[in-house]
Amino acid sequence: MIRLILAVALGGAVGTLVRFATGTWIAANWPQHFSLGTFLVNIVGCLLIGLLYGFFLMRPELPIELRAGLIVGFLGGLTTFSSFSLDTLRLLESGQLPLALGYAALSVFGGLLATWAGLLLTKL
Asked: Which of 26, 29, 115, 119 could tie 46 with a disulfide, CB 3.0–4.6 Å?
């Protein structure tokens, strides 16, 4: 059990650092598009969770530590809909209703589409 906990913790730490680095880089280079970092990590994370889910379905013998470390830890730390919600709220508060609605719709439907695409890619 301790190996499982460590795998999730390590994956979560790495995923969180990747999310932080992405958001920081986007904000430094395109401050007017601060929400792009969260959007990108959510879409990429959804694609990766689809790929990993499909891959692990085909390879059930792989260790639970690897599966949980990547899906629960890394992707759980990488993607965050709490940041997504805050970014949407900030867009609404700044009077950017069309952008906020577009951002929310693209994030949700883009995430679903990316997850589906990732799963389909494992079936090729």
From this structure: 115
